[in-house]
Amino acid sequence: MTNTIDRTASTTVDLLHIGGPTVRFRYGNLTWLTDPTFDEPGDYPSGPLVLHKLTGPAIPADQVGPVDVVLLSHDQHSDNLDPAGREFLTTVERVLSTPDAAGRMEGVQGLRNWESVTIGDVTVTGVPALHGPEGAEALSGVVTGFVLQAAELPTIYVSGDNASVDLVEQIAQRIGRIDIALLFVGAANVDRFGDSDVTLNGRSAVRAAAALGDAVIVPVHGEGWGHFSETLDYLARNFAYAGRAAQLVIPVAGEILAVAAR
Asked: What pTM was computed for the model?
């Protein structure tokens, strides 16, 4: 089944939400995958914390098909890269992530903030992300987002595990028009920073959407783990109350979503 979002642009991007932060999409004649997570439910130690996975992937790793490039927000946490995801990386020729991840993992290319690399016809730029409040890097580690650009194609922003609206505003100002934004949401909170969430929540996601103009907002990484403190229904209500319901397109895991820019 395919859900088609009717926009004025003729070019669409086919997205498959596999679960959590894991999305496969076609762009610039290449197949891309974000943060591979393919493990079944279970408990995952993460330093002094234990993360609890509640639902498995909609599609197992062996049914994803060939992937040309993985965009890895960070490698430190199992909800963004689990053991099955690490195994999947060995099947992919190009993996882009943070310089820190490149130092820890063989075969990973690290991008500094605002550094770009060209793959085929696509330019990928690493953009800043903050996994919590100011100073969170000391506990959460360094994370990154990505912007994909190609001639005659929509510009795509993948936020990664980012909680900072200020950074989204900086990215929008520096990049210019963004057509499609994959925002990692869910108000993730493992009680490291009190009431400060480590990913976008319902209120901050609305502010991020406003900073991105009329970009189509595709929320991911908002379900399937015990540390998400808000539901996608709550997110949708916040967008509706803000008059931005039409901007939000919530994917169904396991179903192709064809998205075209406004």
From this structure: 0.92
- The predicted-structure confidence for 38-63, as pLDDT tens digits, reads as follows 999 999 887 778 889 999 999 999 99
Angle at 229 between CA 227 and CA 230, to 5 degrees: 135
Distance from C-alpha of 2 to C-alpha of 76, rounded to nearest angstrom: 34
- 3-state SS, one letter per residue, for 91-144: CCCEEEECHHHHHHCCCEEECCCCCEEEECCEEEEEEEECCCCCCCHHHHCCEE
Q: Is 188 exposed, middle or buried (0-12, 13-18, 19+ CB in 10 A)?
A: buried
